[in-house]
Design goal:
Alpha-Beta Plaits; 4-stranded antiparallel sheet; 2 helices; binds ligand 2BA; two-stranded antiparallel sheet; alpha+beta; Transcriptional regulator; 21% helix
């Protein structure tokens, strides 16, 4: 058995949970925050049998879209802020960032 931890954008999360449900995958949705953008995102936990892993990953891939986002950089610490003109930086926000972990034990008490 595997545990999929998928960090996805909030706007994709409902569609993804529904699609995984239609594929008979059980999910747990966690509210999370990205360390870089400091914005909300969604982390989904999906516990699944090894042989269904590829199918789950395909559903995640199909239901998460990439987008570009402009980020205002933080002004330099201790520097002369007068001469500092912040240039927004473009970052590409996934899709989905997916971790697959082996499950040692699985209990439902
Ligand atoms: P929920 O997904 O809201 O599911 C609540 C209960 O509904 C489940 O209780 C189960 O009895 C039933 N259920 C869920 N999906 C079903 C399905 N496809 N067909 C028939 N019945 C279904 P529990 O199994 O005790 O799960 C409680 C909560 O634990 C779940 O809430 C979910 O948040 C989490 N969970 C359970 N299995 C999981 C897994 N494989 N991966 C990730 N999260 C899981
Ligand atoms: P955030 O940390 O808010 O990152 C949002 C996007 O900003 C990232 O998109 C990436 O394009 C960019 N980014 C992040 N750190 C950067 C850096 N040090 N320099 C330049 N650009 C940077 P994604 O890579 O698609 O990640 C989306 C979200 O997935 C992340 O939100 C974070 O919550 C999670 N994530 C990504 N990689 C992770 C990892 N290795 N471990 C844990 N969470 C991760």
């Amino acid at each position: 058995m595997k545990l999929i931890m998928a960090v996805v954008q909030d706007k994709d999360s409902n569609r993804l949970v529904n699609a995984l449900g239609e594929g008979n995958f059980r999910t747990t949705k966690l509210a999370s925050t990205g360390g870089f953008l400091k914005e909300g995102n969604t982390t989904l936990m999906v516990g699944c049998e090894d042989e269904k892993l590829d199918s789950a990953l395909a559903i995640i891939k199909d239901n998460c879209s990439q987008r570009e986002q402009m980020v205002a950089p933080i002004s330099p610490m201790g520097g002369n802020a007068d001469s500092y003109i912040p240039q927004p930086v473009k970052v590409e926000v996934g899709g989905a960032t997916v971790f697959v972990l082996p499950i040692e034990s699985y209990f439902q008490f």
